[in-house]
Structure prediction request, 954 residues.
Amino acid sequence: MALSTLEYASTNAASVPRSAAALLWRRLSRNAGSLVAFGVIAAVALGAVAAPVIMPYDPDAPDAEHALEAPGRRHWLGTDLYGRDQLTRMVYAGRIDLLVALEATAIALSLGAVLGAVSGYRGGWIDQLLMRGIDTIQAFPSFILAMGIAAALGNSVTNIVVAIAITHVPIYGRLIRGEMLRIREMEYAEAARTVGNRQRRIIFRHLLPNCFPPVIVQATLAMGFAILTVAALSYIGLGIRPPTSEWGAMTAEGAGYIVSGEWWIFVFPGVAIMATVLSFNLVGDALRDVLDPRMKGV
Amino acid sequence: MLAYIGKRVLLVIPTLFGVTIVTFVLTYVLPGNPALVKAGPLATPQHIAEMERRMGLDQPMVVQYWRYLRGLSRGDLGESYTTGRPVLEDLIQRVPATLELTVAALLVALAAGIPLGVVAAVRRDGWLDHVSRLVGVGGVAMPTFWTGLLALYIFFYALGVAPPPLGRLGTGITPPPRVTGLLTVDALVAMHWRALGSALHQLVLPALVLGFSVMAPLTRMVRATMLEVLESDYIKAAWAAGLPRRTIVYGDALRNCMIPVVTLIGVVFGFLMAGNVVVESVFSWPGIGNYAVAAMMSKDSGPIQSFVLFVGVVYVFVNLAVDLAYGFVDPRIRLH
Amino acid sequence: MTDLLTLEDLTVHFDTDEGVVQAVDGAALTIAPGAVVGLVGESGSGKSVTALAILRLLRPPARVVSGRIRFDGRDLFALSEEEMRSVRGSHISMVFQSPRTSLNPVLPVGRQIERLLVLHGGAAPGQARERAVAMLREAGIAEPDRRAGQYAHQLSGGMCQRVMIAMALATNPRLLIADEPTTGLDVSIAAQILELLRDLGRRTGAAILLITHDLGVVARLCDRVVVMHAGQTVEWATVRRLFHAPAHPYTRALIRSIPRVDREVAMEPIPGSVPSPLAPPRGCRFAPRCPLVRTECAAHVPVRTIGEEHAVACVAVEAS
Prediction:
């Protein structure tokens, strides 16, 4: 059908070109919240990396004289039953939480991406099989499944990472599969095929990189979930166990002191969790605004 | 519509099988020898070997899975070595507590979360919208166990209005005769007013905490849906047709918004079940969540397996119910 | 005969993240009672915004910077929101693109017409149902009684548009605004819809403002045409004059670029591109691409009458 005359005659209005990075910076800097969020994540990451250098106390060294001290000049966030400085412990704990979340997300992303890509591109029985597998994982609330896996495998850091990673695979699997279904029909896939590329090459070198924007957004948000999961698992005793410091476990230690009033032991680790998760969420939202506006409000 | 129902129901079957496979694999991987546990600390190696043979633990994995399925169909969920009773009995005894808490929390979340989300979208950038965004963004980031501890500290320790987290009834109150297992309902039926009051008093804080934790994602989703609906073509056409604001926003838009919200209930339920475990732990609530955690700590495989199975099965059916409800509510599905 | 609608000096800005979009600049048009007027322009030329402005449906980030609208002797901008609401849907109705999504998916289509009749016409519910079914029949829908109980997704695109037209005309408006009513419809269906509009318009005496990018539609349906370019109204003429003696350089280029089947003509796309509404040129926005451009074009462009019911916003055109 011929174009109407005006459609033919018109050309697009000139649009001002803007690189993604410039747009991201502008969006973030305009919103004070996002900037603060970035700052928080940077601080936590810095603490995780530089903890032994910047923290004055040894996280594990007991100091009976100063047990259960309220926040004050010497111990900014107070001390616990053994006199250990809470601030130091929290910074060290940040290492664990961040590390677990990062590793779990990386594993889930890689695995999910491969599964989703193959599933979406090939279709047919492979797709059906993989999707049934993902459905099965998603048949459980993810925390319950993580509990089960953690109980089955044991309390080590590695096992917790595996447990969380498994429950997160469906997120990336479905996302990439969806993107793959969308993209595989598009022209450059056709072009790559005609040039004679092998399927694997097509999937991984040409199509997958274009799926990245929503994946990055999702990964950032999933980091927050991962931290909440490891903290909750540790709280109920299935995750990281003492003497390793971890925010959830520290909160559990503080639970008993509610009735005696030493509030600082449970409050601050929870604040750390909340601030970190919130920051990941805000940054994730900002990334989504920039990279994938059509996902807004999801 | 019939095709819709049929397809959904049919899909449930393989999913249920998948659930049983997952729970079976989990306990298969679980360290520890159940035969050892069952035979007791004084067992000789021959005893243990005999026990292993009797429990079928020397069989290949597939055969064990088959035995497991057969056991399930008979209602045999194994035994808990910590309580010494069949797991099924333990579950029956504990499920009502969890159910009561879950239902109460769901009511809280729906009653507070949906209106908040709707009004936040309607009066965009108003003060209620900011509150909803705070709740949505903040609430999602708050670990539920921390919210619970905070609530206990403020309302129990500092303000003294909440009871000590010692269970479902205050000390010294006799429980009403068990009809449903739901204390509030049973007390109501038996007209034990003191028990009813105490049960509600104990229920308030954990229900609020759990309800708040799921309210956050719910409010976000309702707000997002409502915003989308308000931007849709038919709403714009309604404005152009001169319909009054009340009809457009609280009639047309709201109705269209509530349809996808039905599917959200399924997601919310998943959050509820997860949050349940943590809240039961914080408040020492004698439900299946606490039961499972204790079993996991002591590597008691029967309860662990059955808990995960139970939750999986319930979740599958809840999602099915939600899907079917959606089919009824949305005319686009109900009529071809 | 006084005009039904006069629009003067309408300027609409949008406040966006990227800056202020000057979507409409000094637009003007008139519609006589019962006339069929086409508002023609490329996508993005501000036609839909103008239509929404008439009904005062523009919301932030849109801002009406200036404008005067007289409808049926009343100044529309002076009305309260409540008074304006009673104008919408009853004195002035609007039909949109994408008919299926313009209908409420969870209400039967008959009900959607009925409640308008009750609201604007004060009809009793029983009467309203009869009237609604009658309207559907007039709009060319077979088995209107059955269809009235159906939902939008059960109707074809063409039928949905008929329903929308029935809805719009049920209250006997004096002006019907149709914004690209045939976009997305099959060619044959589109032709039927246009015929329907014209017939119903004639029968009810309603004037029609037809917004479109398709000159062919204009030729078939309209008495008069208003041409818009980059937010400015540049030419007003009868259909005949527009096609046989286009005056404005933009219009001329447009007419020239129509592919013709009756003789060999080189296709001449208009050179250059439409100016960005973020930083439009001062004065005439076609000037940067215009073969007749002069220095005066950067100043305010006067509207000159150059013939029988033919006006143009250009300094370079002589009266014919």
